[in-house]
Amino acid sequence: MGVVGLRESKRATTERAIVDSAMKLFAERGFASTTVDEIAALAGVGRRTVFRYFRTKEDILLDPRRLDRSYAMAALRHRQRQINDVDLVMGVLVELQRRAFAVFRPEHQRLLHRLSHHEPAVAARSFLLMLEAANVVSEALIPSGASSKERLRARLLAMTCIVAVDAGVTAWVEGGMRGDLEAMLAEAGSLLRRGFRR
User: What is the pTM of this model?
Assistant: First the structure.
């Protein structure tokens, strides 16, 4: 492994340690009652190191830098001709979610979901990220010189699919995280397909 590879491996290990420590403390003490200093101490790093990896405490959970815009734009613009709009957008959103939350362990999913829906500061960040994702998706879908109706359709499609992904994850978590999450998200997509059929 070269120098760059070692550096990336060390960075990933440190990021995972910070996230694991934060999730442990959030579960034990609550999000609002946990300080960055406590997270740093448990992770075995300094406060400044935490802020080198994450701008805010909320970012440990929902870092906007995890939104892989380049992947989304490329995947949406180089679509296979036979795929319908809902399947295209849902597929991209599911992959965006997988990439964004790859740093979290499976056992973190229930806590992550609860905090992003019920903790005010985290819920606000979650909503802003949903809007940012919707902007990325709709920008890729809107052709140059698009009419107002085409713009409306693209934005509605983007937001509806984002809500469908969130609803699918919510149903999966509320069901005890049993069964296949991908199957649940595929079902959410199928429920949208009729309205957005080309």
Answer: 0.84
**Cα 6 to Cα 13, 46, 51, 62, 124, distances in angstroms:** 10, 21, 21, 26, 36
If asked whether residues 86 and 177 sit together in one domain, one would say yes
107 and 20 together in one domain: no
Measured from the Cβ of residue 37, the count of other Cβ atoms closer than 10 Å reads 11
**What pLDDT does residue 25 have?**
98
Residues 106, 149, single domain; the answer is yes
How many angstroms separate the CA atoms of 139 and 129, rounded? 15
For residue 164, give the nearest of 182, 132, 191, 195 by alpha carbon: 191
Say yes or no: 13 and 35 in one domain. Answer: yes
User: With helix as H, strand as E and coil as C, how does 97-109 read?
Assistant: HHHHCCCCCHHHH
User: In this predicted model, what pLDDT tens digit does every residue of 112-146 receive, in sequence order?
Assistant: 999 999 999 999 999 999 999 999 999 888 888 88
Structure token digits, residue 128: 């802003």
Tokens, residue 50 = 């935490």
Please give the single-letter amino acid code of residue 4.
Answer: V
Domain that holds residue 14: 3-60
